[in-house]
Amino acid sequence: MNLDEVRCQLSTFEREVAVVAEEMGDHKPSEIIYTEVLREIVRSQAFGACHKFSAVLYLLLAEFEAQLPADAAQEVCLRIGVVASLHGYRFDHSWVQYGPGIYDPTVCLPDKNKGGKTDGPVFASHDLLTGKFVHQLYTALADQSLGKIAQHVSDMSLEEYSEEIAEDGVPSLWKITENIGAQIGLQLNAEVLRAKHGAVRRMPAEVA
Predict the structure, then answer these.
(1) Are strands 122-123 and 101-103 parallel, antiparallel or unpaired?
(2) Taking a C-beta distance cutoff of 8 angstroms, is the pair 82, 125 a contact?
């Protein structure tokens, strides 16, 4: 998809998140977190930003889960691997696995120069544009090797990654997460996030 297409479909995507969440038994906070991250991706025109915004989504979901009793919490995992496309190509990518489902708001805005055609953002393993269950696209190529850039990202902790992408005048990974949290009622602190999650590393794609 391109930015104009995603903007036009954004309200539809938000409605579909609620529909899929009800069908899959997902809870309201995950809808709210996912939707706000998707909105931020569109607001900031974050093309090809899967590594960055999958990390933001991971941090928000992990912080939410940390507030729940242990017997009610689901595992949150930041993953990286080679993903298949329904349009006949494959690409290196990062996403979040939350419980059994794939959560990938970034896939709808691939890199403008290198990315191929994509469908909609993915919530609970469902493509929000087509309605298709696409979990297998994230597991079918789990044994494939990453390219040089993605392998470099995979080798870094979140703290190392955040330092590598840091730019003067641009909010850090941790600050972006804090700001989104504030918009949805999660009181977070960028430095506390860094201390708690800086050592986290991306896990390989789950084998089908």
Answers:
(1) unpaired
(2) no
Please tell me what DSSP assigns to residue 43: H
Q: Is 24 exposed, middle or buried (0-12, 13-18, 19+ CB in 10 A)?
A: middle
- Residue owning tokens 């190392």: 160
Structure tokens at 71: 């017997």
The answer to pTM > 0.90 is yes
Tell me the one-letter amino acid at 114.
K
Pairwise CA distance, residues 208 & 195, whole Å? 33
Give, for 20, the enclosing helix (H) or strand (E). helix 3-24
Confirm if 21 and 123 have CB atoms less than 8 A apart.
Answer: yes
Count other Cβ atoms within 10 Å, centred on residue 178.
21
Q: 97 forms bridges with which residues in the sheet? A: 77, 102
What string of pLDDT tens digits covers the 208 residues of the chain?
Answer: 899 999 999 999 999 999 999 998 877 899 999 999 999 999 999 999 999 999 999 999 999 999 888 777 789 999 999 999 888 889 999 999 999 999 999 999 998 877 677 889 999 999 999 999 999 999 999 999 999 999 999 999 999 999 999 999 999 999 999 999 999 999 999 999 999 999 999 999 998 7
Strand blocks (E) in the chain: 76-84, 90-98, 101-103, 122-123, 126-127, 203-204
